[in-house]
Structures are given as C-alpha cells and as structure tokens.
Write a structure and sequence with these properties.
There is one protein chain. This protein has 368 residues and is α/β, with parallel strands linked by helices. The protein folds into two domains: 166 residues, Rossmann fold (3-Layer(aba) Sandwich), CATH 3.40.50; 186 residues, Dehydroquinate synthase-like, alpha domain. The strands form two sheets. A six-stranded parallel sheet has the order 1-8-5-4-2-3. Strands 6-7 form a two-stranded antiparallel sheet. A hairpin with a 4-residue loop joins strand 6 and strand 7. Helix 10 packs antiparallel against helix 11. It starts with 5 loop residues before the first strand and ends with a helix.
C-alpha cells in the first residue's frame, strides 16, 4: 500500500520547496491557478525558487480541457523544463501531472487521452502543493481531463504520474472562498466514504478512509465558515490527504462514476456534482453497506446507525447549500444516454452494489 510520493505536511512547509527539488534541475515550469497570482503567493514562490529559472503558466480551467493542457506541455518543451511544480487545486495539479508525464515524450495529448499512444518511460520531476482540501490529486497517479469536442471527461493514468513530492501546507487553504471550501471539502468527504465501502478497499486503505471521514465530517462546516481557523485548516488538509491515500488504492464508486459525465456535460464543479449525487448513491448502496455505514457513523461522531448516517450526510449537504438535484443546472432526459454511456469507469466497477443502465436512469430521474 506504500504510496511513492514523498509527503511533507505542516504549516509553512512551502518554504521547503526549493531544497526538496534536486539541485541539478535548474529550469522549472510553475503551473498555478489564477488566485495564486492574485493572492501574492506567486511572488513568494518566485522568491523561494530564486536560484532557478522559472517559467510560469498561470490559470487552469476547471476539468482541464485538452487544448489547455497541450499548451502547458508545449510551454514546458519550449522552455526546456526539467521539473514541474503545481500550486493550486485539483485541476491545476492534474494538468501539471499530465504535462510532467508528456513533456519528455513525442506525440500530442489527445493521442494519449484516446489511447492511441500509451505513456511509457519516466516523466519530469513533479512537485504538487494543493491549495484546497479536496481532490487529493497530489497523491494519485492520474489526471482527470476533458475533451471539449466530445464532452468526455476521463482519467489519463499511469504509475509514473505520481508526483515525486507533495507539500501539504495547510496555510495555503486560507485563500479558499466559501464555495470552493464547500465543493472541494465535500469531494474529499465523498472520496473518504466511497473508499471505505469500495470493493477495492483493504484494511490499510480503510484505516486511511476512516481517518479522513472522522476529520472531514465535523470540521468541514467550521472550515467553510472560517478559513482563517488554523486548527481546522490542518484537520481538513490531513483529512484530504488520508482520503487520497485511501482511494489511490481502493478506487471510488458510483458518485464519481456518474458524476464525471454529468459534470462534463453540464459544466458543474466536480465537488458540487459529487455532493448532489452522494445522498442518492449512499441510499442505493445501503442494502449492501449497512455494516460500513454504521462504522462510518461512529467514526464521524454520530450514533452507530446506517440509516442515520445516510440521513446525516444528506443534512450536511443541505446545510452547506448543496441542491437536492440537478434541475437548476439543466439536466434533462435527453442527457441520460450520454451519462449512461460514459459512466462505466473503474469507479463504477468498485461500487459495492452494481448499477444497471436502468438503475442509473432511475436515479437521474429522481434527481431532476
């Protein structure tokens, strides 16, 4: 279960970035979100990396489109990048992971995304510094990308896509907006729950998932309301980290399987899409997951009751402003075939209770 990423955790650990990158790697491609420049963090990063040549790509769209990631790859090739540093949320880190893997090789990104070419060989040194407690992308070997032409969202995945280094500095979470804190935090909680009940789970992954759920459930509402609370930031960062360590092994479930095509089609932020689906998928899995739900309830500080856990998660989502369905986002029956066709990922295969196409459609109808 050993995760190959070197993890450095703690307040202020961003200052260790330069010393953790091999000294022979002089040319750095720095990939960031726009808020990094706006917050003054970019200036701090340039100061930390002052003894290196830094090329900056600032701004990555949510659910990174192929053409944008291709631009990052070309920037890295032109600049002679020897290492990639990503500072941002999951989309930034995913885009940078894909770039680090493909800058040294031939072929364009779409060929790898479509499966025409396969990733081989070792990518560039990659360091990831998350600014959200959410996707856990800093500890996983995949990058979720979107093809705007087909509206298909899927993972580019290879063992060499694990970052070499993850610096998880809870102070970087202070810049989250309320909406980003909620969306990313509920994504992290969903990952913890899906990891715990996944068919791919083992004892060690469940221990990480339990730690994640126990930290995220009570702290997320507090964090969303006050991102300046250092204790809660650390709890959220640790929870997100443990969730990623869990699902990197166990895989996820139907929330992520169904959520990817819905989010891609309707342009819904990934974490929000997962949060809308989570109560319905939990109820679907209840007949085969009662034992695990009761355990999760106790882990989250709730009475040890499976039904009660499902209800409590639904109430948490509602309290954080998550709608009970996708009507406001424009979901309609004409979208169902696309969703059914494109939801059959590894996540669906790890879901503890199988879902037929008709089962998926029935759930979508309930969420209209």
């Amino acid at each position: 279960m050993d995760n190959p990423v070197k993890i450095i955790f703690g307040d202020g650990t961003i200052e260790r970035l330069n010393r953790e990158i091999p000294s022979t790697l002089k040319n750095i491609l720095l990939v960031t979100g726009r808020h990094v420049a706006e917050s003054g963090l970019l200036e701090q990063l340039n100061s930390i990396l002052a003894n290196r040549t830094v090329t900056v790509h600032c701004g990555v769209a949510a659910e990174p489109p192929l053409h944008e990631v291709e631009n990052i790859i070309e920037t890295g090739r032109r600049s002679g990048a020897q290492a990639v540093v990503a500072v941002g949320g999951g989309s930034v880190i995913d885009a940078a992971k894909a770039a680090a893997a493909l800058i040294p090789v031939s072929g364009n990104l779409k060929q790898y995304f479509d499966g025409t070419l396969s990733i081989s060989g070792k990518g560039l040194f990659m360091a990831a510094l998350p600014t959200t407690a959410g996707t856990g992308a800093e500890l996983t070997p995949n990058a979720v990308l979107t093809d705007p032409e087909t509206q298909i969202k899927k993972s580019l995945r290879h063992q060499t896509m694990y970052p070499n280094l993850a610096i998880i500095d809870p102070e970087l979470l202070a810049g989250c907006s309320y909406e980003l804190a909620v969306n990313s935090g509920l994504d992290a909680f969903t990952q913890a729950v899906e990891s715990y009940i996944s068919l791919g789970a083992n004892q060690t992954s469940r221990e990480h998932a339990a730690r994640a759920a126990g930290l995220l459930y009570p702290n997320l509402p507090v964090f969303a309301a006050d991102r300046s609370n250092a204790f809660v930031r650390r709890a959220m960062a640790e929870g997100s980290m443990n969730g990623a360590l869990a699902f990197a092994v166990s895989g996820l479930g139907a929330v992520h399987g169904i959520g990817h095509p819905i989010g891609s089609l309707l342009k819904i932020p990934h974490g929000r899409c997962c949060a809308i689906l989570l109560p319905s998928v939990l109820r679907w899995n209840l007949p085969v997951s009662e034992k695990y739900y009761a355990e999760l309830a106790e882990i989250c500080g709730l009475p040890s009751d499976a039904e009660g856990f499902v209800d409590a998660v639904g109430k948490l989502c509602t309290a954080l402003g998550i709608p009970g369905g996708f009507t406001s986002y424009g979901l309609a029956p004409q979208h169902f075939n696309f969703i059914v066709k494109n939801c059959r990922s590894n996540s669906m295969r790890n879901n503890p209770r199988p879902m037929s196409d008709d089962d998926v459609i029935s759930m979508l109808e309930e969420l209209l």
